[in-house]
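User: Hi! I'm working on a homework problem where we have to compare a predicted structure to a textbook description. Could you give me the structure for the chain below?
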Amino acid sequence: MIGDKKVLFSGMQATGNLTLGNYLGALKNWVTLSDEYECFYSVVDMHSITVRQDPATLRKRARTLLTLYIAAGLDPEKNCIYYQSHVSAHAELAWILNCFTYMGELNRMTQFKDKSAKHADNINAGLFTYPVLMAADILLYQADVVPVGNDQKQHLEITRDIAERFNNIYGDVFTIPEGYYGKVGARIMSLQDPSRKMSKSDENPNASIYLLDDPDTIMRKCKRAVTDSEGQILYRDEQPGVKNLIDIYSACLGKTPEETVREFDGKGYGDFKIAVGEAVVSVLKPLQDEVARLEKDKAYLDGIIKANAEKAGYFANKTLRKVQKKVGFPERVR
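Assistant: Happy to help. Predicted structure tokens:
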């Protein structure tokens, strides 16, 4: 707790380009949480280097991601928006928590198995201990709640296990975080393979709509979206491509899938795809305009980065000093 509010922590990786799925499924909904929670939103650039990154590209994407947070409506006065790498307590706590995490627990993590298969030439220790750094991210701020999708539930469980193990030895040091399952954002699937989520790492450029795609690119991708030969705009599992487009249109315009189906009753896929593209453009164009405006104000962004790193560091170090004392590290001479 900070004041009267519970603490919420979340973050996104500074790799790839954010997609429409990231926005409609998560970022858009983060904006509504700051009234209820004390929110820490991290650009998790330390996690990013488990896979080799071009340094200049990583720096650029990290800044763009932080800018997108603000452009999407996250007020940097009400939310702590910061770079993970600017708060050294993340790495320091991760080392300590490594010593309270078992190899067997890490061996069971499905993400490690998946990423090892994808990056067989670079199965590094960071990839293996990734969940411990994630646990440090959450526990540093004594987070009460963490928004989680199905693919992150395992990470939250190991975080809870590590925290409980530490608390059982040293007393109530960490808050045990709960998953946040509030308003669920739309689950947006790939435009080319609607059996999979839209992903920023998809190798097919037509599969994902990126937040900074220009209107012509968005329209082209929507027109190329996979549908079927049935020719009817119905919201059902037997038509996954059409169902996905209905979800996108509905989420962009604040409609229910049923309203969308009624609106396009008797119309063809061609007209529907154009309407979907126009709906996406109507949502992303204002966001893109705000990103462009913010990027021109370097001093403003730099000020936010500095102030919020200091704020995050203040709360993170309160926890870190407590942990260091508990495990027996010598006290610092002031």
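For your comparison, note the following. The chain has 13 helices and five strands. The beta strands are 6-13, 37-44, 80-83, 145-147, 178-180. Good luck with the assignment!
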